[in-house]
Write a structure and sequence with these properties.
7 strands, Alpha-Beta Plaits, about 20% strand, 4 helices, two-stranded antiparallel sheet, binds FE3-S4 cluster, about 15% helix, binds zinc ion
Length: about 120
């Protein structure tokens, strides 16, 4: 089973900005979408739209983002089926209180939380 690279900020380069967060490449839309966010990082090429992260976050960091054409199985063929063509976008990553619930509960380990030192 894949999981988000915990060292993504060293191993990847900044491809873009989305609202107020960084997008870490590679990015080849619509299929390959990269990692959104830094302290709250979601690997869009692992996210299968389970949604538990959105349900458990006490401060509503995430919001659904439509991603028609997303194809996480292109890079991770062994992922469980995609539930819908949308992603949990860490729109308010600055509000994170580091409760870690999202990282622990995501069934495909698409989320990496890094508390700024
Ligand atoms: Fe995606 Fe995992 Fe959240 S699959 S929607 S990041 S719980
Ligand atoms: Fe929410 Fe995850 Fe932070 S559940 S508070 S974004 S650690
Ligand atoms: Zn985003």
């Amino acid at each position: 089973m894949p999981q988000i690279d915990p060292n993504f900020s060293k191993n990847r380069t900044q491809a873009d900005n989305h609202v107020e967060h960084v997008v870490w490449g590679p990015v080849q839309p619509p299929e390959v979408l990269g990692i959104h966010g830094t302290s709250v990082a979601v690997d869009f090429d692992i996210c299968i739209a389970d949604g538990v992260c959105i349900d458990v976050c006490p401060v509503s960091v995430f919001e659904w983002l439509d991603a028609p054409g997303t194809n996480p199985h292109k890079t991770h063929p062994d992922l469980p089926p995609l539930l819908s063509e949308r992603k949990a976008d860490p729109l308010r990553e600055k509000d994170c209180i580091f409760c870690m619930a999202c990282e622990v509960q995501c069934p495909v380990q698409a989320i990496k939380i890094t508390q700024p030192s």
